[in-house]
Amino acid sequence: MKLVVGNWKMYPKTLSAGKKIAEAIKKNGTRAHLRGRRGQIKVVLCPPACFVAPLLGQLKRSPIAVGAQNAFITDEGAFTGEISPAALKDLGVAYVILGHSERRALGEDDTVVAQKIIAAVKANLKVILCVGEHVRDDAGTYFTEVGKELRASLAGLPKSETKHLIIAYEPIWAIGAKALRAALPKDFREMSIFIRRNLVDRFGKKAGFAIPILYGGSVDDRNAEGFLSLGGADGFLVGRASLDAEKFSRIIMAAQNSR
Ligand code: PEP
């Protein structure tokens, strides 16, 4: 199955604009679901937290799932402003993005990410764990950086919970409007082999091979196909292009058409 996840960050600025984008994606995403074999593709929209509930209502009878961009390390307590994973699950949220580099840049470290993952899987949410290096150097130290981040973020996660786990490889240098370019499909392929080896070492062959590895970082409707066919991506975590219904729908179609 290919997974296509849209990370809307703090956009759009109004609910009505968000509903318009979601409606257009719903139309095209539903067509992709109907056209493909059952279970071939899954589309997830992760809007800003305050739009999660209304979008869940809007997308209720569609194949598009709604995800969250963050959840806290525990379900309850005096933690002003935090989001309970259990409350997200109760609303109907299925997925949560954790360890995104933009949250790590705000101070979230591997220990907190690991705690959040445990709390999210306990609430029965599927976790999209983001990992990725700051820069690429000739010496290949980016492998060490990603390996360390992966191991530390997954500390304490039992093998029995890996069915809830999805990895998104997002090289930080390729994310966002300031990125010079996307990674190349060969960059992704190389890193996904490394990540896979780490997952197999950590969880064993069967569980390690079953964990999807997505690519994220300046994915658009022109480069998506290459990451699927040459890179072997299990899908995408898409930022900017997921706010453009036409572009995002073409990315969904590329995933639907891939094997
Ligand atoms: C992201 O937000 O995870 C992301 C990959 O953003 P963009 O696609 O805009 O680079």
TrEMBL record:
Pathway: Carbohydrate degradation; glycolysis; D-glyceraldehyde 3-phosphate from glycerone phosphate: step 1/1; Carbohydrate biosynthesis; gluconeogenesis
Alphabetic keyword roster: Cytoplasm, Gluconeogenesis, Glycolysis, Isomerase
Principal subcellular localisation of the protein: cytoplasm
Enzyme Commission no: 5.3.1.1
Single GO term (MF): triose-phosphate isomerase activity
Membrane-crossing residue ranges in chain numbering: none
One BP annotation, GO: glyceraldehyde-3-phosphate biosynthetic process
One Gene Ontology term, aspect cellular component: cytosol
SUPFAM superfamilies hit by this protein: Triosephosphate isomerase (TIM) (SSF51351)
Domain of life where this protein originates: Bacteria
InterPro entries: Aldolase_TIM (IPR013785), TIM_sf (IPR035990), Triosephosphate_isomerase (IPR000652)
Catalytic activity: D-glyceraldehyde 3-phosphate = dihydroxyacetone phosphate
Subcellular location field: Cytoplasm
Pfam families xrefs: TIM
Family to which the UniProt record says this protein belongs: Belongs to the triosephosphate isomerase family.
The protein's assembly and partners: Homodimer.
Alphabetized PANTHER family for the sequence: TRIOSEPHOSPHATE ISOMERASE
Full protein name: Triosephosphate isomerase
Organism: Candidatus Lloydbacteria bacterium RIFCSPLOWO2_01_FULL_50_20
Organism placement in taxonomy: Bacteria, Candidatus Lloydiibacteriota
